[in-house]
Automatic annotation (TrEMBL), chain A:
InterPro entries: CysN_GTP-bd (IPR041757), CysN_II (IPR044138), CysN_NoDQ_III (IPR044139), G_TR_CS (IPR031157), GTP-eEF1A_C (IPR054696), P-loop_NTPase (IPR027417), Small_GTP-bd (IPR005225), SO4_adenylTrfase_lsu (IPR011779). The gene is cysN. Transmembrane segments: none annotated. Pfam families: GTP-eEF1A_C, GTP_EFTU. This is sulfate adenylyltransferase. Keywords: ATP-binding, GTP-binding, Nucleotide-binding, Nucleotidyltransferase, Transferase. One of its GO terms (molecular function) is sulfate adenylyltransferase (ATP) activity. Residues 10-223 form the Tr-type G domain. The keyword NAD does not apply. It comes from Adhaeribacter rhizoryzae. The keyword Transferase applies. It is an enzyme of class 2 (transferase).
Automatic annotation (TrEMBL), chain B:
GO terms for biological process: sulfate assimilation. The lineage of its organism: Bacteria, Pseudomonadati, Bacteroidota, Cytophagia, Cytophagales. This is Sulfate adenylyltransferase subunit 2. Keywords: ATP-binding, Nucleotide-binding, Nucleotidyltransferase, Transferase. Its EC number is 2.7.7.4. Residues 283-302 are annotated as: Disordered. It comes from the Bacteria. The gene is cysD. It comes from Adhaeribacter rhizoryzae. InterPro entries: PAPS_reduct_dom (IPR002500), Rossmann-like_a/b/a_fold (IPR014729), SO4_adenylTrfase_ssu (IPR011784), Sulfate_adenylyltrnsfr_sub2 (IPR050128). Residues 31-256 form the Phosphoadenosine phosphosulphate reductase domain. Gene3D superfamilies: HUPs. The keyword Membrane does not apply. Coiled coil: none annotated.
Length: 422, 302
């Protein structure tokens, strides 16, 4: 069954900037803020002062997002910075992610909640490995829109030829990925060409500016309104005089629509009941849909706890202990086949065993590497895990909330990998 | 299925914050909500009520009291706590000083802002809190723009901004080793304007100092400080009466006012939407150095 795309008024766009180190991501975000006049005077004074102290020729707009001491000292981005701005047509949450390979995990962090990725390429360097890695991660995470910004056009004489060459290279690479919508814009983040204002130096480029593209890209809903999924977060038992017998299941709707009277099934027990009410602080509601946080009460007393999932009997998720995953490995310690890890999936926590490593991706060629299965920092691989308890999940492409999980180190409690259920 | 399955932006933010709060309460044993009496913590307390209704708040609120508060804030704090039936814990910087844990700054106008960290950490220790909700927003300050929703603190309560845990989708990893704790920021994605619009939409009450009033202030290097026992006039300074309000609420010794005629929420929203400086520009504590906030945060500040 096809998931019908919902025609909705696009009110919020979450995007990231990504690409290789020093390609100008932070500068571009700064330029967007500056040219849309969303920088505050004190912030501007602050970065003007710092740029001057550092003897820089231009006001360094990257300092608007590179807020950590270490970032400013090294002139690189280490962790994602989130910035918020709005134009009359849209609200934007943007995440400026680091290009340095060492901090790929922070890029994945920013990308996991984005609908669009601006991939930057330095016009002098063209498409390089980190460009490919970030683009591949974006496609893995189901980011449907990519804008390739060929940056630093000022350093290549604003050459149309250079732009076309990079565009062609990127088209070749991306044709093997499943990305719905790609656009190409030549820019200079430093000088502001084609960011908010049209470039006077590139009359040969007739397409829209970056801001125009961001404001007009068509956003279907990324919410699934078909498959009803309600992972139970918390069981509410107030035990006050007024609500003495109240027993509600608090959580967020992660798919589909729930209404009072709906017949529902609880996993893993398989018991069925009817929704008696959908409660909120502001009163009961007639229906609940993503991403609402509500409290559901049922007609029957059933044993339900955190990690269980309320669904509809005629539309159940897959239930299994054996799960095929693509993972982005995010730790210096390598993945060990046969080792136990903790998994967090929806509101469920369990342990799992890595049963098999199927292959590792060659990021440049997108070929599968099957003769070297050592999975280390920043590797992307396909693996099979077996969990101690069944998970209730959907294919990530169908529902990112029920199709994603993380792997956690059982001893240090660090987050090790992002997992995408196939 | 139709067009109507859509939450307004504020309702989306609300749903996200509620989700985060429930997630923290489910994953931790002893949560606490840091309550300053300012607009962000008032919104947070409101969201917490929504998250756990019909139950009462499953955690106490903690006020780290510098002793340099606006009296209006304290009055409002007590009013609100009583109204919503919450449990309030107050720990004072003065006690930390008396116990020899902290030392008052030198100079004519010592700020107790930094010392709050000491008091906060000893309260966390005293009650064995393992997670503290903070009302910080990413749009407030450049170091805060980097913070995760679930922010890990090591056994010395330190934040390591260079080595934060990845935070993927909305899967929050609150696992920790003994002695460590977390700070959780449910308002991370809210902007100042969102907060004001939400306050208006939900008709939340606020301390009076957020609204325009007449007050004696002294202009110290561009920061308009309210007359109080915590301010000693320097040579050449004098108080003057102005029509002002406060955009943030902190200590009287460092929170600057803005000149403003905005006396109701509608006017404040219009003013915030048109503002040319950030709300923290009026905070003397953030003007001390370029990385003032990051440095305080690393030590365990809110
Ligand atoms: N000439 C020129 N220089 C640029 C342009 N955009 C950025 N730069 C410079 O390139 C350098 C790196 O810029 P950043 O914005 O910090 O790069 P980044 O992609 O954010 O780097 P990481 O976050 O560390 O990966 C800085 O010196 C910028 O001034 C451009 O359009 N033209
Ligand atoms: Mg950067």
């Amino acid at each position: 069954m096809e998931i019908k795309e919902q025609k909705r008024e696009a009110d919020l766009l979450r995007f990231i900037t990504c690409g290789s180190v020093d390609d100008g991501k932070s500068t571009l975000i700064g330029r967007l803020l500056y040219d849309t006049k969303t920088i505050f005077e004190d912030q501007l004074q602050n970065i003007e002062r710092t740029s001057q102290q550092r003897g820089e020729e231009y006001v360094n707009l990257a300092l608007l997002t590179d807020g950590l001491r270490a970032e400013r000292e090294q002139g690189i981005t280490i962790d994602v910075a989130y910035r918020y701005f709005a134009t009359p047509t849209r609200k934007f949450i943007m995440a400026d992610t680091p290009g340095h390979i060492q901090y790929t995990r922070n890029m994945v962090t920013g990308a996991s909640t984005a609908n669009l990725a601006i991939v930057l390429v330095d016009a002098r360097k063209g498409v390089i490995e980190q460009t490919c890695r970030h683009t591949f991660i974006a496609s893995l995470l189901k980011i449907d829109h990519i804008i390739l910004c060929v940056n630093k056009m000022d350093l290549v004489g604003f050459s149309e030829e250079v732009f076309n060459k990079i565009k062609a290279d990127f088209e070749t690479f991306i044709s093997r990925l499943d990305i719905a919508d790609v656009s190409y814009i030549p820019v200079s983040a430093l000088q502001g060409d084609n960011i908010v204002n049209r470039s006077e130096s590139m009359p040969w480029y007739e397409g829209p500016t970056l801001l125009y593209t961001l404001e007009n890209v068509h956003l279907g809903s990324d919410l699934n309104l078909v498959d009803a999924r309600f992972p139970v977060q918390y069981v509410s038992r107030p035990q006050t005089t007024e609500y003495h017998d109240f027993r509600g299941y608090a959580g967020r709707v992660e798919g589909g629509v729930f209404k009072p009277g709906d017949e529902v099934m609880v996993l893993p027990s398989g018991f069925t009941s009817k929704i008696s009410a959908i409660e909120t602080f502001d009163g009961p509601v007639a229906e609940a849909f993503p991403p609402m946080s509500v409290t559901i009460t049922l007609n029957d007393e059933i044993d339900i706890s955190r990690g269980d999932m309320i669904v509809k009997p005629n539309n159940q998720p897959q239930t299994s202990q054996d799960i095929e995953l693509m993972i982005c490995w995010m730790h210096e310690k390598p993945l060990v086949k046969g080792k136990k890890y903790i998994i967090r999936h929806t509101t469920r926590e369990a342990k799992c065993l890595v049963k098999d490593i199927r292959y590792k991706m060659n990021i440049n060629t997108l070929h599968k590497i099957e003769d070297d299965l050592n999975i280390g920092l920043n590797d992307i691989a396909r693996i099979v895990i077996r969990s101690t308890v069944p998970l209730f999940f959907d294919d990530y492409r169908r529902n990112a909330a029920t199709g994603s999980l993380i792997l956690i180190d059982e001893f240090t409690n660090e987050t090790l990998a992002a997992g995408i259920i196939l | 299925m139709s067009y109507s399955y859509k939450l307004s932006y504020l309702k989306q933010l609300e749903a996200e914050s509620i989700y985060i709060m429930r997630e923290a309460v489910a994953q931790f044993e002893k949560p606490v909500l840091l309550f300053s009496g300012g607009k962000d913590s008032i919104v947070m307390a409101h969201l917490a009520r929504k998250a756990f209704w019909p139950a009462k708040l499953p955690f106490p609120m903690l006020h780290v009291d510098t002793g340099h508060n606006f009296p209006e804030t304290i009055e409002f704090r007590d009013y609100l706590v009583n109204k919503i039936g919450a449990r309030l814990i107050v720990r004072t910087v003065q006690d930390s000083i008396d116990q020899g844990l902290a030392e008052e700054e030198k100079g004519p106008n010592p700020s107790r802002n930094g010392l709050q960290t000491v008091t906060l950490l000893s309260a966390i220790e005293e009650f064995k809190f393992d997670v503290a909700f903070g009302g910080a927003r990413r749009d407030e300050e450049k170091a805060r723009a980097k913070e995760r929703f679930f922010s890990h603190r090591d056994e010395f309560s330190q934040w390591d901004p260079k080595n934060q845990r990845p935070e993927l989708w909305h899967l929050y990893n609150g696992r920790k080793n003994p002695g460590e704790h977390f700070r959780v920021f449910p308002l991370s994605n809210w902007t100042e304007l969102d907060i004001w619009q939400y306050i208006a939409e939900e008709e939340l009450e606020l301390p009076s100092i957020y609204f325009s009033h007449q007050r004696e202030i002294v202009n110290r290097q561009g920061v308009l400080l309210a007359k109080s026992e915590f301010i000693t006039l320097l040579k050449g300074e004098q108080y003057e009466e102005k029509t002002i309000r406060f955009r943030t609420v902190g200590d009287m010794s460092c929170t600057g006012a803005v000149e403003s005629p905005a006396s109701n929420l509608e006017d404040i929203i219009a003013e915030v939407a048109a503002a040319r400086v950030t709300e923290r520009a009026a905070r003397a504590d953030d003007q001390r150095s370029e990385a003032a906030m990051e440095d305080r945060k690393k030590q365990g500040y809110f």
